[in-house]
Amino acid sequence: MIITRLACAIILHLQISGEVCQAIKLMMFTIYRTASWNRRLPQFWIAFMQLSGALFTEFLNIYLMCKQKEPGAIIMNLLALTVIAEIDDFYAKSLANHFGRKLVEDGLLRFSKLAKEDG
Predict the structure, then answer these.
(1) How far apart are CA 97 and CA 111, in angstroms?
(2) What whole-number distance in Å separates Cα of residue 20 and Cα of residue 29?
(3) What are 45-58's pLDDT values in tens digits?
(4) Tens digits of per-residue pLDDT, 12-56?
(5) Are the beta carbons of 76 and 7 closer than 8 angstroms?
(6) Of 25, 38, 54, the residue nearest 117 (C-alpha)
(7) How many structural domains comprise the chain?
């Protein structure tokens, strides 16, 4: 049972570590590359929410694994929390065909005023 807990903790950690690294990189990019404070704060909070969600999921998984007594329940909680941790990725993929993105790519919608504020 200890091996099951250790294996599940390692698997979830490997899956969540990518999101943690991405959130930290986004926070660093926001701090150092965005010139306007009005645009920096929302970007920073979005990255912070991604970071806090990933860390909360990992801590919750460790807590639940310590409380479970059966290996099947440990694996079930791992699978459930893995799906919960990936919900934001599912949402981001669903926005891939959004009409606003197509307008920006086609050049019909421009952000020239926002680009001048950034530098």
Answers:
(1) 20
(2) 14
(3) 888 988 998 898 88
(4) 888 888 889 988 998 888 888 777 767 788 888 888 988 998 898
(5) no
(6) 38
(7) 1
Q: Which domain holds residue 77?
A: 2-118
Residue 117: name the closest of 46, 39, 42 by CA. 39
Q: Between vectors from CA 77 to CA 61 and to CA 87, what angle results, nearest 5°?
A: 80
Length of the chain equals 119
Q: What is the 3-state secondary structure (H, E, C) of the chain?
A: CHHHHHHHHHHHHHHHHHHHHHHHHHHHHHHHHCCCHHHHHHHHHHHHHHHHHHHHHHHHHHHHHHHCCCHHHHHHHHHHHHHHHCHHHHHHHHHHHCHHHHHHHHCCCCCHHHHHHHC
Tokens of residue 26, six digits: 């986004």
Vertex 31, ends 30 and 33: CA angle to 5°?
65
